[in-house]
Design goal:
Undecaprenyl pyrophosphate synthetase, 6-stranded parallel sheet, globular
């Protein structure tokens, strides 16, 4: 029997088609607070958060989402205690190794965005290996924002453009939105249609400030480790009810 698609018109609230939903970005907030409220070591929150992410990617695959972006580790997160940062890095690498099996099954191609160049050699090599192993997968492109700051990303794009002007590769009159977009970490990737942030916080926190200018925003009170398929479904249904006018 053919599997019923969530995107069938009869399954969407108000019979709204959402075929234009291609890219969802997630601000995966609340892992540490989940640990505290559940009397767990903070590392357990990140482990459960990675499990939630793996399930979310699978659910997005079922729903036909082609692009996923996740805010995994911000540049400002390095201001946390060193032992906490080190423990997070270990958990992140271990969990990503586990997730690789599902990446291959689901056809997920992983790409790391952020200031990767300043990370230690082992981490850079691991990220590079993940990208190489998954580069031929075609079903989903997963952008993992790591050591990421949107302000820094925009500053870097300005520096790149200035360099090209100095080298006479472009003229100042060539500067437009497309040119700037092509200098960002996310070049050639469609901007997010929908941004979902968990934990009840209602802010963007320096995440894709340029790219989400016209994205729909949804804020969920649940902590990220508790985010599940029903939450994703409800968010998509809420997106389907909204009318996007792209600033018009």
């Amino acid at each position: 029997m053919e599997k019923e698609s969530f995107f069938d018109e009869k399954n969407i609230k108000n019979n709204v088609k959402i075929s234009n939903l291609k890219h969802i970005a997630f601000i995966m907030d609340g892992n540490r607070r989940w640990s505290k409220e559940n009397n767990k070591d903070f590392k357990e929150g990140y482990i459960q958060g990675s499990i939630a992410l793996n399930k979310c990617i699978s659910d997005c695959h079922d729903y036909g989402i082609k692009y996923i972006s996740v805010f995994a580790f911000s540049t400002s997160n390095f201001n946390r205690p060193k032992n906490e940062v080190d423990d997070f890095m270990k958990v992140f690498v271990n969990q990503l190794k586990i997730m690789m099996t599902d990446f291959m099954k689901l056809g997920v191609s992983a790409k790391f965005i952020g200031n990767i160049s300043v990370l230690n050699d082992d981490l850079k090599k691991f990220f590079n290996d993940v990208e190489k192993k998954t580069k031929d997968n075609k079903d989903i492109l997963l952008q993992i924002a790591f050591n990421y700051s949107s302000r820094e990303e925009i500053i870097n794009s300005i520096k790149n453009i200035i360099t090209k002007i100095k080298q006479s590769e472009i003229d100042i009159k060539d500067i437009n939105q497309n040119l700037i977009s092509n200098e960002l970490y996310t070049r050639k990737i469609p901007d997010p249609d929908l941004v979902i942030r968990t934990s009840g916080e209602v802010r963007i926190s320096d995440f894709m400030l340029w790219q989400i200018s016209f994205s729909e925003l949804i804020f969920i009170k649940k902590y990220w480790p508790d985010f599940g398929k029903e939450d994703l479904k409800e968010s998509i249904c809420e997106y389907a009810k909204r009318k996007r006018n792209f600033g018009k």
